[in-house]
Amino acid sequence: MGDDSDERMTVEVVEVSPQIHVPHEGGSTVQGEVFRQLLQQAIRVADQANAQSVRMAADFAEMYRREAAIRGEYEAKLKELRLMEKQTTRYAEDLAQMLRTERDRREELERALQQERLANEELRRTGLQGISHLLLAATLKDQTTGAHLLRVRRYVEAIAKRLGLPEELVEEFGYSSVMHDVGKIHTPDHILQSEHHLSTEEFDVIKQHCIDGELMLGDAKFFETARAVAREHHERWDGQGYPDGKSGTEISLAARIVSVADVFDALTSKRPYKDAWTADEGMASITQGSGAQFDPDVVAAFQDLEREGIIERIRQEVGSAKLY
């Protein structure tokens, strides 16, 4: 401040200060002591007020510091949340795009599967039509073939069910089984209709029907099982069969089932070179061949069917009927 202010301050202090009258004698000591005490008391009060003000200022500063720290943490969290919100938004957008893409792919896949189902159904119809034509040719060549093939198919389907195979395999094994001797279309009639036991050379010609049958069925996927049946139905469990000498589970399951059904029906049917065996004789031969000529599990299933009367019922239902 300037000099005028200092003068005003001095005047104001003088004005508020207690007026001291200095007595001339004895009373001066008492009044001085009172003044000193009052001054000391005023100083203490001022010191206390100053200390309290300092404490309040420190508390306020600490409170401000804490609030500033909290505000800083809040702003950092808020910034982090905003970043997370942006990331979440991008993630949601990416996920939505992925879902749209997946939906489009699923719809495309469903259309492709539907087209495949239609193509497979058409292939199946075409394949069954081809089977019918081949069987007609085989039946015209050998009048005993029709009933034999129908019984074999019924036996095969019954065995496949007893083994617990899925229904689609039961059906596939059934219609494939009727193709097992399709290669005999190429077998000369004098051998096929022979009334005497075949010579080694004639038997070699007969064995060729397995290979011929596989070749006749081409390479279409529909005939995959039928090709295996045609080639392998004369293979043996012990590896002593033909044409490849396969053994055990190297032989397809369909062919192992057809082998049992085919041999049983051949034994129990009349042929130019032999009379028909009884069903008991046929079953005894099948049982004897278990583990050697035939798959033991397939033989066991066939025995169960025989005990339940299913085999005899099939024989009676088919009888001497022909396919056409």
Describe the secondary structure blueprint for this structure:
Layout: H1 3-16, H2 27-141, H3 145-162, H4 167-177, H5 189-192, H6 200-216, H7 224-232, H8 253-267, H9 279-288, H10 296-307, H11 310-318
Helix pairs in contact: 3-4, 3-8, 3-10, 3-11, 4-7, 6-7, 7-8, 8-9
Q: Would you give an account of this structure?
A:
The protein has helices spanning 3-16, 27-141, 145-162, 167-177, 189-192, 200-216, 224-232, 253-267, 279-288, 296-307, 310-318. The protein is an all-alpha fold and 324 residues long. The chain has 2 domains: 29-141; 143-318, Hypothetical protein af1432. The N and C termini lie far apart (134 Å).
Brief write-up:
The chain is an all-alpha fold and 324 residues long. The protein is 72% helix and 0% strand.
Percent strand equals under 5%
Largest sheet: none
Number of domains: 2
User: How confident overall, as mean pLDDT?
Assistant: 82
- C-alpha end-to-end distance: 134 Å
Shape: rod-shaped
Main attributes of the structure:
324 residues, mainly alpha, Hypothetical protein af1432, 2 domains, 11 helices, rod-shaped
